[in-house]
Design goal:
Strand order of the largest sheet: 2-1-6-5-4-3
Radius of gyration: 30 Å
Distance between the termini: 79 Å
Order of helices and strands: HHEEHEEEE
CATH topology: Nuclear Transport Factor 2, Chain: A
Helix content: 25-40%
CATH class: Alpha Beta
CATH architecture: Roll
Number of domains: 1
Largest sheet: 6 strands, mixed
Length: 231
Amino acid sequence: MNPNRILTVPAAIAALLCAAGCSQRDASLRQELTALQSQVADLQRQSGLAQDYIAVANLQAIYGYYVDKSRWDDAAALFATDATLEIAGRGLFRGQARIHEYLNQLGPLEYGRLFNHMQLQPVIHVAADGRSAKGRWRSLMQVGHLGKEARWGEATYENEYVKDGETWKISKLHSFITFYVEFDRGWNKGAVALPKHLEGLEPDTETTVKYGAFPEVFVPPYHYENPVKPK
């Protein structure tokens, strides 16, 4: 009997056992690595959506600040090329150029003019692919001209947004004015009629939703369902 042959049998068995064990450990490591890669991808997706949420919230707030100070060119630049704008009963304006025209009809910032639009209470839903979003907002308005008028108003927005490259833009702005009243009279004395077409500027189409503001009862449609309502 070859003594060298006898010695190599245990070594071969050990090598086989080691190979089997190593193979099992490699498979386990591969599973763990796959799970970690999946977790990282999910965290990256969540992080991206969170950043998109912030960007959309900032975009809408920036719009409000520009409108307050009659920075119409800056406000119009926030819209996508094929965006739509619809405010109160003034009809719908389609495309960035027409939105720019509409906004500039609202007049310049001047002595004695108050024009505040506070963008509040956002409910924002970013699409799973991170390329579009929808948002509901409440705008509390202060409108006044020295010696002429002083008014309170509230508008509920149901807006849509689109990511143009890596930049978020407004693709649809729909402002439902729910009340508009004289400051010194208060809403218990009635309301101001909803504004109609701007003089000298016709919309591309009539308003898409016909409604009445306070004292009429109207609830602007929601883009989302109740998140805790039983299915």
